[in-house]
Amino acid sequence: MFVGIDGYIDGWCCCIIQDGIKIELHKNLEDLYEKIGINNLTLIDMPIGLSSKNIERKIDFKLRTFLHKKKKSSVFTAPCRKAVLSSNYNSAKKVNQKITKRSISIQSWNISKKIKELDEFLITPKKNKMLIKESHPEFCFLNLNNNNPLIHSKKTKEGYLERLSILIRKEKNIELIIEKTLENFKKEKVKKDDILDSIALALTSKYWQKNGSRIISQTPKNDEMGIPFEIYY
Fold first, then answer.
1. Inter-axis angle of helices 192-207 and 174-184, nearest 10
2. Peptide bond before residue 137 is cis, with ω within 30 degrees of 0
3. Assuming Cys at both sites, which of 2, 90, 98, 158 could form a disulfide with 17, CB separation 3.0 to 4.6 Å?
4. What is the percent of the chain with per-residue pLDDT over 70, rounded to a whole number?
5. Residues 213, 195 contacting (CB under 8 angstroms)
């Protein structure tokens, strides 16, 4: 089983590759874990390993060096662990500034609840939890596209079709899977690009060993809770 997880507004969009491809939506990671377990490499589009007063997460800056200049902005600098506990954006900025000497973007704050959920999930003892690894969909698409930079934003029709064409090279029925998912989950707020991203992550998981078991890391290797700073691709 190979799994890719992308956050969407009401939960987590999960692509599972096992005797074909299927998409599931889960309200939280606990539910996802109970339903499918973590049986193989699971890639998630969310920061893993957070800054603290004495340990800095540098891996976001490192990842940007691998991306085309037009795609670097797709990598948000992750808030520190204490910032994600804040009640509002202004408070989070002040906390982050105090601990890391840097502010955080509104984009980072908008995903802070999911960062917190994942962080707490990883800190709580669970069987095989460390098989969940951080990845980044735009970087996955770049590598699935033989390292040729993508042209269009994923939020545009052209960007959707560009990414769809990349995935179809790996799995022919991707478009049908996306259409069926949108039909099955009409009442959910999942979007096409959420589904695309989860599939790209799952395919990257599937081909990870074949492609050389590639990992971006940093020094120090772990955050204050012992969670590794690693991005798989």
1. 130
2. no
3. 2
4. 98
5. no
